[in-house]
């Protein structure tokens, strides 16, 4: 099996590929290396005939705190801005069912990526936030298109434009989350369902997903991803974004 430094990837006997964000000391923040490893792990799992389901979760307290802000100061940052866009492109095209087990707070791209998952299970202590405008940025990961479709325009605007943090129960109520479990039972109850789903027919799962996420729909998502990425490229170098970055590192230096 491929060795990963920022992920824990395991294939069980039921045909489930478990992909875990594995930087718990950094709240599972997604570095450029993790972006590369996520892409590779997804590519390998989707191409493995033994894999029926692909399941994401996080090690430690967080699902993921989103994009690692240290990416901004990386010397390659200008050349690597397409890392998330590339990850979204492969998420759009994954043929096998994707299931997220949101074990704790999900922030930024850790929330927007969930629109490409077929099921989202959450601990009742999980929270969901996309503080983009606090950073001088905007919607990403096709969230500008998918959030209003899933949760309605008003809640999408609250999350994407006005930085409201949502609870797992609130997102269950509006259809963004599939199920919510008590935190003490979250792992056991989620895994029991995963094991049950793994007994379903592989081809039926793939064909069923293809009918829901049909070609024209996926093409629309790719166009949205491209459009959002262009706007983000402009915003990254805006005075608002630069000021937000300086404030972030100023707070960090005082810790």
Please describe what this structure looks like.
- The chain has 255 residues and is an alpha/beta fold.
- It is 46% helix and 15% strand.
- The protein is built from 10 helices and 9 strands.
- The protein has helices at residues 32-47, 82-93, 109-112, 143-151, 153-160, 168-173, 183-197, 202-212, 215-236, 239-253; strands at residues 7-11, 16-21, 53-58, 98-102, 106-107, 119-123, 127-129, 166-167, 179-181.
- The strands form 2 sheets. A 6-stranded mixed sheet has the order 1-2-3-4-6-9, with helices on both faces.
- Helix 1 (32-47) packs parallel to helix 2.
- The longest helix is centred in the C-terminal third of the chain and has 22 residues, at 215-236.
- The model has no long low-confidence stretch (mean pLDDT 93).
Give a quick precis of the structure.
The chain is built from ten helices and nine strands. By secondary structure, the protein is an alpha/beta fold. Helix 1 (32-47) packs parallel to helix 2 (82-93) and helix 4 crosses helix 5 (153-160).
Q: How many angstroms separate the termini?
A: 39 Å
Largest sheet: 6 strands, mixed
Number of strands: 9
What is the tally of helical segments? 10
Radius of gyration, taken over Cα atoms and rounded to an integer in Å:
18 Å
Mean pLDDT: 93
Extract low-pLDDT stretches: none
Q: How would you name the oligomeric state of the polypeptide chains in this document?
A: single chain
Strand content: 5-15%
Strand line-up of the largest beta sheet? 1-2-3-4-6-9
Helix content percent band: 40-55%
Strand/helix succession: EEHEHEEHEEHHEHEHHHH
Q: What global shape is seen?
A: globular
Structural class, by secondary structure, is alpha/beta
